[in-house]
Task: structure prediction
Amino acid sequence: MSSPPSGSGSADPATITTVGVIGAGRIGQPIIGHLTRNGFAVQAYDIDQTTRAAVEERGGRWTTLEQLTHTAQAILVCVGYDRELRDLMATGLATQPARGAILAVLSTVNPRTVQELDTRATAAGVVVVDATLCRGARAADAGTLLSFVGGEPDAVARLKPVVAAYSADIVYTGAVGTAQAAKAANNLLMWACLIANHEALALAARFGVDVNLLREALLKTGAENAVLRNWGTSTMKWADDDLAVIHDMAHDAGITLPQTDLNRELCRALKPRKFRLDEYGV
Result:
């Protein structure tokens, strides 16, 4: 497990016992369950009121956004999109928590959005930690997510027991925004693998190769990848949004990523017929 360097920041050293979760969707719900099983008092809020029962089944306490932000020592933001985080920022997310509270962004968003949140929060005495997630829903269920974390080292150390409740691996990446960049790299490779796997298996199938046999064999070669290992399970729900974030990041950095831009278009075309190899390339 990678740990942050020691630091001398001003974050409140008090042990975190109360955690708020904003966003009780497919990833937020199991995270709430892991937190309560690890002894944290969990408050939860989602704009979708139908998630309340799932929150309460997992031991969380449903509350208002205002109550959650005012009372939780650590607030985990687990919304789906960059625009949803910006909507929360517009309603005062950065300034409503108590001084010394930690705002951790678990969502996959543009690094500049988290950096803007950090700037606003710092002025109000609130600490932001960039804490994005990898490995997806199955790992969320099992509590084996990989968390990239970036931010002030003392704040990251204080938040670590919270993150460890749902993560098997925690990797410190540096300043706020770097965890989002690390997650973007993960997503770039993941969606590239999905396209490459389709093309490789579709080509082999046209020449009469047993696809299941080939896939098992490829998992023993340098072509092995997690998408191939879990073939057939991706919903591709986040492909376009992930690749849009990466496109904007590349623009901000002044570089072009031609393969990634092509993969974005390929993913759009592939999504309605994913894993149907007989239709690929026709």
User: Anything to note?
Assistant: The two ends are 45 Å apart (CA to CA). The chain has two domains: 18-175, 182-279.
